[in-house]
Write a structure and sequence with these properties.
The chain has about 80 residues and is an all-alpha fold. It has helices spanning about 1-15, 40-50, 60-65, 65-79. The protein is about 60% helix and about 0% strand.
Length: about 80
């Protein structure tokens, strides 16, 4: 289940950021992906919430700054 969840989260990143999956290492962040700006970050977090059935606190949204951090948070929320 964790692998399918990770793939689901990465699919949202691909869709929202308009990047190919090979650009989504665990360390990928707004510093490494040009299309990932502050507005896109909010859209990304909302899309992940909807697709994965999780909810982020506003402060937490701003702390989740890498693909790996977001995947780990969604995995933790899904148990």
């Amino acid at each position: 289940m964790s692998e399918s969840t990770a793939l689901q989260v990465r699919a949202v990143f691909t869709s929202v950021l308009g990047v190919s999956p090979e650009h989504l290492s665990d360390d990928a962040s707004p510093d490494t992906i040009l299309s990932w700006d502050s507005l896109t970050h909010i859209n990304l977090m909302l899309a992940i919430e909807g697709a994965c059935g999780v909810q982020f606190e506003p402060d937490e949204m701003m702390e989740l700054r890498t693909v790996g951090a977001v995947v780990q948070r969604v995995l933790a929320a899904r148990g």
